[in-house]
Design brief:
Layout: H1 2-27, H2 30-39, H3 48-68, H4 72-95, H5 116-135
Helix pairs in contact: 1-3, 1-5, 2-3, 4-5
Length: about 140
């Protein structure tokens, strides 16, 4: 039971720190992140600014939620859903044949091209989040 709590705590902080880093990277240059979003050609131009603020704000709030340790199950499921959406978004862009020089994972910082590796990284985050969710579910004790 103790190792389960320890593993959940480590996962909670690892996922939280990754989300914090991605949020900060995007918030430091919101206009730059809006330009990255535009390269995906999936959002109406008038909405780019709102999405460029909403996405990192959601990441930041989720990171803080994970750090708080409150309702870890809910935070883990939310993280899994967010990263599944990112994986789907990225796979759709690649499937449409788009060449995107900066995936935008960390805003304009740590610019890396969008590749299938990016999709794999998001799916790995889904898996880690689901593992955290599993570890956060109460275990029935044997009678």
């Amino acid at each position: 039971m103790r190792s389960r709590r320890l593993t959940a705590g480590v996962l909670r902080h690892v996922i939280g720190f990754i989300l914090l880093a991605t949020a900060v990277g995007k918030l430091v240059d919101v206009r730059g992140f809006a330009a990255v979003l535009e390269s995906y050609r999936a959002l109406p131009p008038a909405s780019l600014g709102a999405f460029a603020v909403a996405i990192p704000a959601a990441e930041l709030l989720l990171a803080l939620w994970l750090f708080s340790g409150r309702n870890t199950l809910g935070a883990a499921v939310s993280s899994a859903a967010m990263h599944a959406a990112y994986a789907t978004w990225s796979a759709a862009a690649l499937g449409r044949g788009l060449v995107i020089p900066n995936c935008g994972c960390f805003g304009v910082f740590l610019a890396r091209p969008l590749t299938w590796e990016t999709v794999g990284e998001d799916l790995a985050m889904v898996a880690l989040s689901l593992l955290l969710a599993r570890l956060s579910t109460p275990v029935a004790e044997a009678a």
